[in-house]
# Entry
Amino acid sequence: MHNDLQIYNNKMLYDIASMYINSQPIISIEQISSGIINITYKVNFTKSGKSGAFILQQINQSAFSSPLSLIENHLKIQSYFKSKRRIIANKIEDLNLEIPELIQTITKKYYFIDSNNIFWRAFKYIPSASSFSHVRTKSQAFQIGRGLGLFHYIFKDFPNESLDSIIPELHNISIYLNKYDRVLSINKYPFLVNDKLKYLLDWCLNFIDSFRLKIQAYQEPLINSKLIYRTIHGDPKQSNIMYSNHSKKVIAIVDTDTVQRGLLHNDIGDCVRSSCNIRGEDTMNFEDVTLEFELCEQLLRSYKYHTHGFLTRKEWDSFPQSILLIPFELGLRFIIDYLEGNIYFKVTSQEHNLFRAIVQFKLAKYIYKNFSRLSNLVKEL
# Structure
C-alpha cells in the first residue's frame, strides 16, 4: 500500500490544524472513516467558551497531481452555488442544500503545505448531519434523488469550461481498458496470493475479458447520441450525500473534487450503483450483490422531479446504459489499482481493491441480466 498519503501522529496533526484557528484550543482530532481517496479529520475546538469544529483534509496527490486546481475549482463552484441558490430560493420549494465551504488559514490561504510537501485544506463543518452508509428505505432513496436532482438543477447554467479538468476522460471505459491491458501485461499477480485469492483474481480477469465484448452494444448509443455536456458532480455515491439528523432530509452534497464538464448519465450511473446495492461496496457476500429495483425507481422518480424539467428525453433514455456501465468501469479501476499495488484508492488490506472490484463486477453482471427490466422502469417514469 504505497500512495502519497502520509500517516501523522497527534502532535503533527495538531500543528497542522492550528494553522486554521488563531489561538483557540484544540480539544480533539478524529479521523472520519468514509472516503476512499483523501484522509479526512474532524477538528474539535473551543472559542469563547463555545465548542466548534471544522473538517481538515489531506489531499491524496497520487490521485490529484494538481492540488491547487482542486482549490481553484472549488472556489469557483462555491461562489456560483451561493449566488445561484439565492436567486432561485423563492422559486424552488424546500431548497435546503449546501456544499462544503473552504476556510482560510491564519495566513489567508485556502490551503496549507506541510514540511513533507503535502497539501492540506479545511472546510466548514456541517453540524447535525450524517452521510448515507447504506440506503435501506424508499424515503432514503427519495432523498438521494432529491439531492442529486437539485445539485444538477442549480448547476445547469454553470460555465463549466472555466474549471480545470481534474481527471480527464473520467468515464472513458476504453482508456481504462487500455490501461488494464498494459498493467496486466507487466504484473498479473502483484502480491503473493493463496489459492483462494488467485481464484478470485482469475474470476475478475475472466469477467473483464468476457464483459468487454458485451458492453460495446451499450456504449454505442451513448457515444452516438450527441448528448449535452453539462456540469456533473463526478462522484455522487451515497456516502457523499448528507442528510439532517433531525429532519432526515438531504442537506448537503460533499466531495466536489471531480465536479467538471460531463454527461449527466454518468452521475446517475454512479449514484444508482452505490445507493441501490444494499449490500454495500465492501460486502464479502459477493453472491448476494443485486440492484434493488424499488430503491432505483424511487431514486430516479425523485431525481426527475427535482431537476424541474430541464432534462432532455435523450438524456433520460441514456440512464439504463450508464447504470450498467459505471459498475463495470469502477470495478475496472479497482482491479487496475490492485494490479499496480494500491496506489490510488485508500485500502485496509492488500486485497481490499480486489474485493471491491468483485462487488462491482457482480453488480454489473446482475444489471446485465436484468437490463430489460431496468430499461422498462426508466421508460415508464
Observations:
- The two ends are 44 Å apart (CA to CA).
- The domain at 10-128 is CATH 3.30.200.20 (Phosphorylase Kinase; domain 1).
- The first strand starts at residue 26 and ends at 32.
- The chain has two domains: 10-128, 131-380.
